[in-house]
Design brief:
5-stranded mixed β-sheet; 481 residues; globular; binds copper (II) ion; 6-stranded mixed β-sheet; mainly beta; single chain; binds CU-O-CU linkage
C-alpha cells in the first residue's frame, strides 16, 4: 500500500521542529503566602483565569467568549488564533467538587462551534456534541450549566470540526478541587499542546495535507506548555509540586521523564488513584490527564530540562528525537522539609460488572474507490453507524472489550462516564484509577468496567486523535433508563 512508504517522510517532516525562545508571561497573580516555592516560581506558566460572576459560594459563573485573537507564539510575529477569551490556552476554570458551574458562552468565531467538557459527568444535554445540541452559530450564545460531581483535572474543547478548531487554539483546563484531599503540593497546571505555525507566525490550515493529515494525525512542529515555547520556571529543593497535566493536542502524544528526579503519579483522568506510584516516565495520549507529585532533589548541575520524548505511536523502526519542552531552575533557597505523601490517596468502590459485555474493534478499511483508507469501530465509520447507536442501561456496570486491529496506536475515549481498567492483555493494572481516555496499542486487548450512573441520553465514544475521529473512528452510545 502506498501510504506505508510515505510514513518515514512524514515522520521526518514532523521532526523538523525548530526551537523558539520563550514568550513573555501574561499578568501574574499573587503567590499564596504559605507556599514554600520560590517567589514567582510559576510565573512564566500562569494561565489566565475568569472572574466568578456569582457571589454564591457553591456556584461558579463565568463568561467565556470564543473569538479570533492575535497571540504571539513566534516572537515578533503574532498569529491570529481561535481562542477562548483571547488567550492560548483558554482560561483555567477552577471550582470545587459539588459546585454548580455556569458558563455563559458567546461564539464570535467565523463558524459554528460547541464546548465539550471532556471527562466531566455532565447531563447528556450539556455534553457539547452535535448529538446533544445544535452547533452554536457565529454571533449566538449558549449557557452551559451543570454540577461538578468529581474532583480532578479536566479540559474543555469544541466538538464541531474538532481537529481543525482544537488545532487553531480552542482548548482550556478545568480543575475541580476537593478540600477533603490531603495537601499534595503546590498546584502547577500544565496544558501540553502543539501548534502548526511557521517561522512567520502563519498558521497551517486545519485540513493541511488532506487525507494524509487525517490518517496520520496532524502534529504541529511547535511544542507548547500553557501556550508558551520552552518556559523556564523555578523550583526549590524539597518543596512539593503537584502537576496537573493535560494533553490537549489534536494528535501528538507526549512522553517525558525528569532527569535526576522522581516522578510520582497521584492521579489520572478521573482524579486521584488508589495509592501513589513512582513512575519512570509519563506518557499521555491526546485527551488524557495525569496528576504528578515532584519534590525536587538537589541538582548536581544546572537547570533541569524536561524533554518531549516520542512514544512512537506509528511503531516505526526508530522514533523521533527528544525536544526540550520546559525547564526548571533549582534556586539556592534552603531545602524545604515538607510532610510525607500519604500512602492511601483514595478509596475507590469495587468495580463489579453486572451488565452485558460489549466489544469494540478499532479498525480501518478501504474507503471509496480512488480515495484513502477510512477508520471505524466494529467495521463501520461514524457516518455508517450513527443511525444505530450502541445501547446501555443506567444503573449497570458493563464490561467493554476494546481491541485495535490497525498498525498504529489509538486513544479510546468515552464521553460522560468513567471506566476502570480491569485488564490489559489479560493482566490487571498496577493500581486502580478512573479513566475516560486510554491508549490502545496495535493488537492489544483492554477490558474496561464502565459504570452507567443515572444520566440517560445520547453520548459518543471515539479515538481522541481528532483527525481519526473525523476519518470515522467514532460512534454513538444511547444510555437508557
Ligand atoms: Cu475530548 Cu469527544 O472528546
Ligand atoms: Cu470527551
Ligand atoms: Cu486513532
Amino acid at each position: 500500500m502506498h501510504l506505508r512508504s510515505n510514513l518515514p517522510g512524514l515522520a521526518l517532516a514532523l521532526a523538523l521542529a525548530c526551537a523558539r525562545p520563550p514568550v513573555p508571561p501574561p499578568d501574574a497573580g499573587e503567590p499564596s503566602p504559605t507556599s514554600p516555592q520560590p517567589e514567582g516560581w510559576d510565573e512564566p506558566l500562569r494561565l489566565s483565569t475568569l472572574e466568578d460572576l456569582d457571589p454564591a459560594a457553591d456556584t461558579v459563573h463565568v463568561a467565556l467568549t470564543a473569538r479570533v485573537a492575535s497571540v504571539e507564539v513566534v516572537p515578533g510575529k503574532p498569529t491570529p488564533l481561535w481562542t477562548y477569551g483571547g488567550s492560548l490556552p483558554g482560561p483555567l476554570i477552577r471550582a470545587k467538587k459539588g459546585d454548580t458551574l455556569v458558563v455563559s458562552f458567546q461564539n464570535e468565531l467565523p463558524e459554528a462551534t460547541t464546548i465539550h467538557w471532556h471527562g466531566l459527568r455532565v447531563p447528556a444535554e450539556m455534553d457539547g456534541t452535535e448529538a446533544a445540541q445544535k452547533p452554536i452559530q457565529p454571533g449566538a450564545s449558549f449557557e452551559y450549566r451543570f454540577q461538578l460531581l468529581d474532583s480532578g483535572t479536566y479540559w474543555y474543547h469544541p466538538h464541531v470540526r474538532s481537529s481543525a478548531q482544537v488545532g487553531y487554539g480552542l482548548y482550556g483546563m478545568l480543575v475541580v478541587e476537593d478540600s477533603a484531599e490531603p495537601p499534595l503540593g503546590d498546584a502547577l497546571p500544565l496544558v501540553l499542546s502543539d501548534l502548526s505555525v511557521d517561522a512567520e507566525g502563519k498558521l497551517a490550515p486545519g485540513d493541511e495535507s488532506g487525507w494524509f493529515g487525517d490518517y496520520f494525525g496532524r502534529e504541529g512542529a511547535t511544542l507548547l506548555v500553557n501556550g508558551r515555547v520552552r518556559p523556564v520556571l523555578k523550583a526549590r529543593v524539597g518543596a512539593p509540586q503537584r502537576w496537573r497535566v493535560v494533553n490537549a493536542s489534536r494528535a501528538r502524544y507526549f512522553r517525558f521523564s525528569v532527569e535526576g528526579q522522581q516522578l510520582i503519579l497521584l492521579g489520572t483522568d478521573g482524579g486521584l488513584i488508589s495509592a501513589a506510584q513512582a513512575i519512570p516516565q509519563l506518557t499521555l495520549a491526546p485527551g488524557e490527564r495525569a496528576e504528578l507529585f515532584l519534590r525536587p532533589k538537589p541538582q548536581a548541575q544546572g537547570p533541569v530540562t524536561v524533554n518531549w520524548e516520542d512514544p512512537n505511536r506509528f511503531h516505526l523502526p526508530q522514533g523521533r528525537n527528544p525536544e526540550p519542552l520546559f525547564t526548571f531552575e533549582v534556586t539556592d533557597d534552603p531545602p524545604y522539609a515538607g510532610p510525607a505523601l500519604p500512602t492511601v490517596l483514595r478509596t475507590l468502590p469495587p468495580a463489579t460488572v453486572d451488565g452485558p459485555t460489549q466489544s469494540f474493534e478499532l479498525m480501518e478499511k478501504a474507503g471509496a474507490p480512488g480515495a484513502g483508507a477510512v477508520l471505524g469501530i466494529n467495521g463501520k465509520t461514524f457516518a455508517e453507524s450513527a443511525g444505530s447507536p450502541v445501547h446501555a442501561r443506567v444503573g449497570t456496570t458493563e464490561l467493554w472489550e476494546v481491541t485495535n486491529s490497525t498498525l498504529y496506536d489509538h486513544p479510546f475515549h468515552l464521553h460522560g462516564f468513567f471506566f476502570e481498567v480491569l485488564s490489559v492483555d489479560g493482566k490487571p493494572p498496577a493500581y486502580r484509577s478512573l479513566k475516560d481516555t486510554l491508549n490502545v496499542l496495535p493488537k492489544q486487548r483492554l477490558q474496561l468496567a464502565v459504570h452507567f450512573d443515572d444520566r440517560p441520553g445520547m453520548w459518543m465514544f471515539h479515538c481522541h486523535i481528532l483527525d481519526h475521529a473525523d476519518l470515522g473512528m467514532m460512534a454513538m452510545l444511547m444510555v437508557m433508563r
